Amino acid sequence: MGTMANAKVAAIPITGRRVDPKLVETMMASMPEDSLPETLASKAASDASNPAASIEEAQPETFVPAVSLRDVVRAVLDQITRERIITVVLAFISIGALFLVWYLGTKYKVEFYIRFRNVPTPSEVMQQAIQVGLSKKFIVNIGYSVRRILLGFVIAIAIGVPLGLMIGRYRRIGDFFMPAVEIMRPIPAIAWVPMSIMLWPDNESSIVFITFIGAFFPILLNTIHGVHSLDGVLIRAGRCLGAGEFRLLWNVILPGSLPHIFTGLAVGMGVAWVSLIAAEMISGQFGVGYFTWEAYSLVNYPAIVLGMITIGVLGLVCSGIIRIVGRLMMPWLAFAPGSKK
């Protein structure tokens, strides 16, 4: 029986699926028999003295696949399904129907309880949009409105979501806050305009406050409802796994309430735009609401319709962003029963 000292070990590069026998014989013949045990012993000693180096040598090289333009186009095309095409087509039909009613009503001057006599035609509004688009004033007004809506909405989220989680989770906190919330909630945002002018030092702060009021209550109430509708089995399972109160709030209650929270965000964004436009019409000096009210004061009917369309488009974009963020933060809803795959 042979011994391990007489064994010959060699590293043979394999370039294909088969090993060339002549290459094996050549490499084995070129290695001295006496040096093999010493080489193996020195290699083992170096590995024992520096095990980290041997581990690093054993790690495979990282392979980064190259992404071509064809792969990107193919991934985009895979997202275009029959259901999404139908959704887009129905959306265009819905918007086109509104413009068709507007066009026919203004062309034939329909007066059947609803009067289209003084309503500008789509072509007149388009001419007004081209005229206004050449000036920076309209863009400045849009910028002011977007900045105000973002400030008020972000503040409403920062206060409404944590407070809603606390009220929904802890009964005593709800007993303390809910009476005041129920008293203030029915007050419309436009009724806050005189009070906000007295409370805040300038018009800009008062308009942001009114926007905050419009978004705050839908976000707060939907967050509370999300906590109350959470399955108690999830909370008990978290406690059995050793989760503390903070872990329960962060890893169980908040993710479980996200669908209701995003419903509140969508509703709150719509109410925030209504509140913002009302505040800008009354006390603003810039903004889309101020632009629309100024057009009414100057009897510029095409500019009024342009302002209304601008408000609708901005609200549509904001709601779309909320839906996209909701899908990114709640990917598990795509696998829920009844969801759109």
CATH topology annotation of the largest domain: MetI-like fold
In CATH, the homologous superfamily of the largest domain goes by the name MetI-like
Distance between the termini: 67 Å
Any idea how many domains?
2
Tell me what the CATH architecture of the largest domain is. Answer: Orthogonal Bundle
Number of distinct helices: 14
| Total strands | 2
For the biggest β-sheet, the strand order reads 1-2
- Radius of gyration over alpha carbons? 34 Å
Shape verdict? globular
What's the CATH class label of the largest domain? Mainly Alpha
Q: Which strand-content bin applies to the residues?
A: under 5%
Mean pLDDT: 81
| Percent of residues in helices | over 70%
The assigned structural class equals mainly alpha
H and E order: HHHHHEEHHHHHHHHH
Mind summarizing the main beta sheet? 2 strands, antiparallel
Runs in which pLDDT lies below 50 for 5 or more consecutive residues are 1-9, 54-58
Main traits of this protein?
single chain, mainly alpha, MetI-like fold, 14 helices, globular
Question: Which secondary structure elements does this structure contain, and how are they paired or packed?
Answer:
Blueprint: H1 21-30, H2 35-49, H3 51-58, H4 69-79, H5 82-107, E1 111-112, E2 114-115, H6 122-133, H7 136-169, H8 171-184, H9 192-199, H10 203-228, H11 232-240, H12 245-283, H13 288-297, H14 301-329
Antiparallel strand pairs: 1-2
